[in-house]
Amino acid sequence: MKRLEGKVAIITGGARGMGEAHARLFVEHGAKVLITDVLEKEGADLADSLGDDAIFIKHDVTSEEGWMSVLESAEKYFGHVTILVNNAGIAGAFANAANLEYNEFKKVMAINVDGTFLGMKTVIPSMLKAGVGSIVNISSVSGLQVAPGSPNAAYVGSKFAVTGLTKMVALEYATRGIRVNSVHPGGVITGIAPAAAFDNPKALEPIPMMRFGEPKEVSNLVLFLASDEASYITASEYKVDGGMTAK
């Protein structure tokens, strides 16, 4: 069964890692997908591999003009947008507050928070025209509690902000056919953390399942939230962390 048949999705940060896994699974389940990322070659290659059901646009999520261009392209090629996955994000430099450069702080906040807000602001009118929409904001376990190994205050602050934005926008549009939820991965192998972090056996100690998650294990949840199967779910947060936040 194709669970996203007839749906049109925008996935940011879609060129690799979790974003790539989301895009592949969405196309497999019948969605038309517009992939965005700053990684042009990787994004274009991914879209080519997915065929006519996917296109790629190079996109800086902190640019309001860029968001308008993305929306125009999605509507031109596929129709009104009914799914938005705000997946783009960065961790920033590993540093404590006194050593974290302010420009680095602003960069992390701009991509993780401004990008998420601008995505919702831009795409919601298209969803209202379609009469239905699902927004999935990728936060982190660091957006629920200060998790072991969190890189810096900017990252934690930005992910808490995404959690709050999700709830506020969900309440604003709860009676208008648009659902908004957040997903909180922890210990998942993606490009956002240094590869060395996954080679350190001590990194498994906070995870009760004693293994790292794979991107598709997050994508399976994102698929569910994007689908009509989650029709009564909004303003909620979902952890994919191998039990990390239970400790």
From TrEMBL:
InterPro entries (UniProt xref): NAD(P)-bd_dom_sf, Sc_DH/Rdtase_CS, SDR_fam
MF-aspect GO terms: glucose 1-dehydrogenase [NAD(P)+] activity
EC number: 1.1.1.47
Record-linked Pfam families: adh_short_C2 (PF13561)
Lipid metabolism keyword on record: no
Keywords in alphabetical order: Oxidoreductase
Top-rank taxon, per record: Bacteria
Signal peptide: none
PANTHER family: SHORT-CHAIN DEHYDROGENASE REDUCTASE, SHORT-CHAIN DEHYDROGENASE_REDUCTASE FAMILY PROTEIN
Name of the molecule in the record: Glucose 1-dehydrogenase
Organism: Flavobacterium calami
